TrEMBL record:
Lineage, uppermost ranks: Eukaryota, Viridiplantae, Streptophyta, Embryophyta, Tracheophyta
Coiled-coil intervals, chain numbering: none
Alphabetized SUPFAM superfamilies for the sequence: Acyl-CoA N-acyltransferases (Nat)
Protein name: Increased DNA methylation 1 C-terminal domain-containing protein
A Pfam family recorded for this sequence: IDM1_C
Amino acid sequence: MIHIAKTIWLGQGLYDNDDNDSLGPMISVCQNLMSGLLYSVTNVRRSSMLVVYEIVDYELPKGKWFCCEDCSRIHSALQNLVLRGAEIIPAPVSHIINKKLEEKGLTDEAGNDVQWQLLSGKVASPDHHPLLSKAAAIFLDCFDPIVMCGRDLVPIMVYGRNLAGQEFGGMYSVVLTVNSIVVSAGILRIFCRVVAELPLVATSRENQGKGYFQALFSCIERLLCSLNVENLVLPASEES
């Protein structure tokens, strides 16, 4: 997870200040990055990188605020995709699954209704809750708890909640369903067009080895390419 408590990026050319070393207290809020805090900014470089030394506890402004046009564009696209609901996977992605199933002699499963969907815990849709619950169950079955302040972070990330000053509201769940049943899921967060992270991804144990993870990852790659996101950060073990 990218930590932004000390340094935050507000977008190229957002500030042009050659004379003053301090702008005093100012609000830095980004609905896409979900970094809604009032910072005391004491140094502004020409590159628009703000070095933060003090966090001041003030009430946040109402409405949606974005640090740059890219974040506004990405946030709008993601929200629209969430509202659109499930989508049929592209033919090349379907081919990945069918090839794996044929290799395992599971040809009877080929041709199933396979869809992918972007979900947000902040969108109050009754249709999303069972999918989010199943995604959380897959993660909890495949991973050890990630504990902070006595709470497991996995459900908090899936539902985009906050915990002890940590903001997870910018996280989305991406699921792959077969005949409306979630078989593979990932947690995705996009930090402007520069980088996105995929901290968790898993396939239910009974469906592993069938190409579902590859299919889900391909859908995520296609999504990021459509948003012009340049880099994707993946989890890795110390041995890898």
